[in-house]
Amino acid sequence: MVRFSWFAFFFIAVVLETANGSKPPNIVLTVIDDLGWSDVGFQGSVIHTPNINRLAAEGVILDNYYVQPMCTPTRSTLMTGRYPIHTGLQHSVILPSQPYGLPLNFKTLPETLQDAGYATHMVGKWHLGFFEWSYTPTYRGFESFYGFYTDMEDHFEHERLGILDLRDDTLPVRDKDGTYSANLFTKQAVQVIMEHNSSRPLFLYLPFQNVHGPVQAPQKYIDKYSFIENKTRRTYAAMLDIVDEAIGNVTRSLEKAGPVVWYKSVLSKAYIVGACLVGILYFKTLNLLNLPIPSSAETWKIVTKNVLWDNTLFIFTTDNGGRPKSGGYNWPLRGQKGSLLEGGVRGVAFVHGPMLKKTGVKSKELLHSTDWYPTLINLAGKKEGGRVDGFDVWETISTGKPSPRTEILLNIDLAPKEKRYRGMESIHPYYQGAAIRVADMKLLVSCPNSTWFKPPELYNKEMVIISFYHFQNSQVKGFIEVALYNITADPTEHNDLSQKLPDVVQKLQERLEFYKRSAVTPLNKPTDSQAWDVARKDSIWTPWRSTVGEKA
Ligand SMILES: *[C@@H]1O[C@H](CO)[C@@H](O)[C@H](O)[C@H]1NC(C)=O
Ligand SMILES: *[C@@H]1O[C@H](CO)[C@@H](O)[C@H](O)[C@H]1NC(C)=O
Ligand SMILES: *[C@@H]1O[C@H](CO)[C@@H](O)[C@H](O)[C@H]1NC(C)=O
Ligand SMILES: *[C@@H]1O[C@H](CO)[C@@H](O)[C@H](O)[C@H]1NC(C)=O
Ligand SMILES: *[C@@H]1O[C@H](CO)[C@@H](O)[C@H](O)[C@H]1NC(C)=O
Ligand SMILES: [Ca+2]
What we know:
Radius of gyration: 25 Å
Helix content: 25-40%
Strand content: 15-25%
Mean pLDDT: 89
Number of strands: 18
Structural class: alpha/beta
Bound molecules: 2-acetamido-2-deoxy-beta-D-glucopyranose, calcium ion
Distance between the termini: 46 Å
Low-confidence stretches: 462-475
């Protein structure tokens, strides 16, 4: 009888194996907030990230991949495939009491994946607006949401400016005070995975709160980094360490989930008898031919081959560069979060999955965070509707084909001059400037200057180099009016070629002008005191201009 059930398992395995081949992949999109270019182990960091390193090594590392320099804009590119100049989110980020968000006329990635038959879940940070319910995740394509709406908050108390921001779907979660967010989110992600019915493909959007400030982590993880003297850096290391553990837990649960649910739903059906007969036949044949009969353990291995993980595309990306003040570093790249220099926008990222044809490689092809939208919906079998700025880069990632991209608009965020921008100065005075990458070259215009920030644990080793850049952790003053870098030859942006190559400057300036013509006015709005009134009354950040009722 024991053997008998193994036969059944085996048959199910074979059926699933065949079914899997044509099924759209499960997609797990993991975003690490403010993760620095050089902070993960596979970039040479001292921070311990064994799970991330292994997945990166087994997958494809994206070495020439760009994001936007801040949270809201990058997240908007993931959801829409559009450059922020086309959604109105190109300037700064949404603050808790500002009444705007990702415009409702853009169909989001989860909405499109839902059309393609996906189960869509989100765990973590939203940061794309919540002033009305219709802007929140469960109204924008996610079947479930567990996380927070605002830009940042205490990792233990889940409070932003002293007010709670934590929800399960639309309902306040008030009993998690003291539980670290990475633990909460991991537990929820694992639950989503284990409860997922694999008759539908899964889309899990998992934007962690880590490693964004406030710089906090459970003491046990901080203690692992006693060799890092600087306390901010030590705690940041702990924050990344726990994310690595989280990713280990999430991938392990993907390795377990899937067949059990399928097995349960199939068990009730009559053709299980047929399955067993085929199983018996198979084993009888092995017996007759004197071939070894697989042991229970081996059979289990075959059965579990059909877990979610075996058809999962796992994407790992930062949303912007590291912020040295909060312990994140982009060394040897220049600049930091908020800057259009490489340290702000060159994103650390990799993809992993059995559907990749060429793995264990570093892709040098030009890629941008807007590319996920068309790439993923095409993989899901749904041709994109509407215009996007991203490209379907699947062949590039999967087989190493040249990127369909020749250029990336990094952003256009110039201080207001025109009339329509007047009054915007009070919103957020920091303008990033404009930048564009075309093939090897990158042009920067009107960008706040920035320097090279070296992680403190590297000081002793390379004293000579650092003494040269010893304005450590202070934002260098001044503006880069115009600068041109050959990023392929000079990824650290040391050698400004704008004087030497004026024709190249002009060519790239024309491309910037081209994009400028299609830019929409930034949506930024002054803060609204009503947001505070409602938040204080409900003791949670909540939509305050509610036009739609809560979702049942
Ligand atoms: C990972 O799983 C282990 C075992 O269940 C748990 O103790 C640990 O807290 C989890 N890690 C995170 C980051 O939640
Ligand atoms: C999974 O979904 C299918 C199709 O909707 C359904 O028939 C089946 O009962 C579900 N299985 C479980 C275990 O919920
Ligand atoms: C530690 O590093 C942070 C930035 O990561 C910096 O602001 C702080 O001044 C450093 N502290 C010391 C004692 O060097
Ligand atoms: C920008 O900062 C760098 C590094 O500190 C410095 O070498 C350069 O002169 C500055 N450029 C401008 C235009 O201020
Ligand atoms: C940029 O650098 C690369 C690599 O050194 C070189 O092949 C290319 O010709 C350079 N491009 C320009 C426009 O100078
Ligand atoms: Ca961020």
